[in-house]
Design a protein that fits this description.
It is a multi-pass membrane protein. It is found in: Cell membrane. This is ABC transporter permease. Keywords: Cell membrane, Membrane, Transmembrane, Transmembrane helix. By secondary structure, the protein is α+β, with helices and mostly antiparallel strands. It folds into two domains: about 5-50 and about 265-404, no CATH class; about 55-260, no CATH class. Helix content is about 50%, strand content about 15%. The protein contains 13 helices and twelve strands. Strand 7 (about 160-165) and strand 8 form a beta hairpin. It starts with a helix and ends with a helix.
Length: about 400
């Protein structure tokens, strides 16, 4: 006898339930570890890509995390306003491609209306509209890729009431935006944003528009004496050196300046600690599952001592019998590890698909070397440990096995 696989397959067919349960337990243990690692990486990569459009962020002194979550990920909440003087200073600073005010407060059917400048909408010319053009005057809007509106559509923000003061009376006028352009998909929360001239947002809140009376142009240059406060300023530097210089110059008693990556690194560090704990728990569960499976297999092999003794009695060599036992245990563990790798990837992909709309950015799921090492280490350890049942069975004399 030289080919042990017919005997192995026959044993698998006789013990289908045990084989299925064993594979499922090992696959589930591996899948937990793979899903944890892959999901943490997907969250890290997706959140980093979503912050790519914000090289330098300026806000009022306060919580950096709150500033990033509000401005970059549009998790809108009340934050202190940075003064208009900071915007005027940043707009004219050396090494600045654009300094864009970011103003919130309105929405349309759940889609946030964000006031800014055309330079930010196009990311300094790097993001031309996929359809139409950028807004060029007040009352025009550029929409993200996921906003369900057509070019030429008119929208009325939920809080878009602009007060008009006449000589004899005061009344409110419903502000209307006309969609003039659609931006290409960015796979982040800004795909669901409606970008409008910041002057309109300020006017809706009865604030000065940053320009002298009668001046109808939008965006910079600004009249520093007529600039209101704003939640954040997105600054696009000309170079890395300029970015560090601007960050230092804009860190004053009136404002804080930061790279979003600085805040994300702190969050990643926390996530990494949580992932490490969960990974240790996952590995511990894998070890327990493998030990339990091997114990069950060992009991099963010892109960089948007569079968193996018969094989040896009819001429099968001890190596052949050892290979049968080792393959039966080893293939189950290796197969369960491979199935767990696939199951963990699928679970992470489904979780990312469910989380992405809620987080506001795409989370690309990939299998990295860490997950592959996890599954491979379990498979190799299982193949090594699987020698134990074979060794124990072969230690019994043939005569004792035939009497079993």
């Amino acid at each position: 006898m030289f080919n042990p696989f017919p005997v192995v397959l026959a044993d698998y067919r006789r013990n289908r339930l045990l084989v299925c349960v064993t594979l499922a337990l090992i696959a589930l243990a591996v899948a937990i570890g793979v899903a944890v690692i892959a999901q943490e990486r997907a969250l890290r990569q997706g959140s980093a890509r979503a912050a790519d459009d914000f090289d330098l962020l300026v806000g009022a002194p306060g919580s950096p995390t709150q500033l990033v979550l509000t401005s970059v990920y549009l998790k809108l909440q009340s934050i202190p306003l940075v003064s208009g003087e900071v915007l005027a200073r940043a707009s004219t600073a050396r090494g600045v491609r654009y300094a864009a005010p970011i103003a919130f407060g309105d929405s349309w059917q759940g889609y946030p209306v964000v006031g800014t400048i055309a330079g930010f909408a196009s990311r300094g010319g790097q993001l031309p509209p996929a359809q139409g053009r950028l807004f060029a005057r007040r009352g025009e809007a550029v929409i993200g890729a996921r906003v369900p509106l057509a070019l030429g559509a008119q929208i009325h923000p939920e809080h878009g009431m602009h007060r008009i003061d006449d000589e004899d009376e005061h009344h409110e006028h419903a502000l209307t935006y006309t969609v003039v352009g659609r931006l290409p998909e960015r796979h982040n929360v800004w795909d669901s944003a409606i970008l409008v001239p910041v002057e309109d947002v300020w006017a809706v809140h009865e604030l000065p528009a940053g320009h002298a009376a009668g001046d109808t142009h939008i965006g910079p240059p600004w009249d520093a004496t007529r600039l209101p406060g704003m939640p954040a300023i997105a600054v696009k530097p000309d170079s890395v050196a300029a970015a560090y210089g601007l960050r230092g110059a804009l860190r004053t008693n009136e404002s804080m300046a930061l790279f979003p990556a600085e805040v994300l690194n702190e969050l990643y560090s926390t996530l990494g600690n949580v992932r490490d704990v969960m990974s240790v728990l996952a590995v511990a569960s894998q070890v327990l599952v493998v030990v339990a499976v091997l114990m069950a297999l060992l009991v099963g092999f010892l109960a089948r001592a007569r079968q193996f003794a018969v094989l040896r009695a009819i001429g099968a060599g001890s190596r052949y019998v050892f290979c049968v036992i080792w393959l039966e245990a080893g293939l189950l563990i290796a197969g369960g590890a491979a199935a767990g790798l696939v199951l963990g990837y699928g679970a992470s992909w489904l979780l990312s698909a469910w989380l992405a709309p809620r987080m506001g950015f795409a989370m690309p799921v990939t299998l990295g070397t860490e997950e592959l090492r996890l599954a491979a280490a379990l498979a190799i350890a299982g193949l090594a440990i699987a020698t134990l049942p074979g060794w124990l069975c072969l230690r019994r004399p043939i005569a004792d096995g035939l009497r079993a």
